[in-house]
Amino acid sequence: MTDKNLIKTLQIELINKDKIKPFKDNPRLHSDDQIKQIANSIKEFGFRVPLAVDEDFTILAGHGRYKAAVSMGMVEMPVVQHKDLSPAQKKAFVIADNKITLNSTWQENLLWEQIKSLDELGFNLNVLGFDNAELLPMLDDNTVTDFASEWEGMPDYESEDVSAYRTIRVHFESDRDVEVFAKLVKQKITDKTKFIWHPQQENLDAESQRYD
Asked: What is the pTM of this model?
């Protein structure tokens, strides 16, 4: 049996944006990219989910939709007014409406199948809210998602041990001492020199180690 006390009569009204106010100290953040995604969704599907506001038209749910609508230049927005909530309930509802949504997960196989189907139909996938990095594995079977497995079976790479046999730190009292030492070991020592090899190892210079 349905509990009628839990079902409220909802009436959607179009309200001027200047009358609508964001909830003070709303803890939920909306990035510029997400606002653009919401705006794209509204353009594609319409403003399907009205804002939930209290008796003073303060937003309880739908801050992202509100910001997206403002960015689109919308003057009026659909709202549903809730006048029966206490101040504590309003604050809790703002949090719960966001957090409970985050607690859901995807059934990935079905999600991928549906996105591939939409792609094959030529549907604009940008309105789904996924970025390209998330969509690529769903659309291209050749996309690498497990990098460690790509190296399985690859031959081991062995390189020559180029560590020093012995390292000695040399301290100088003056630039003149540096010049004398440089001539002694027949190497060029500049202000940027951190260490040298003796005898000089041409194949260990920075240029030869640079990746193209």
From this structure: 0.63
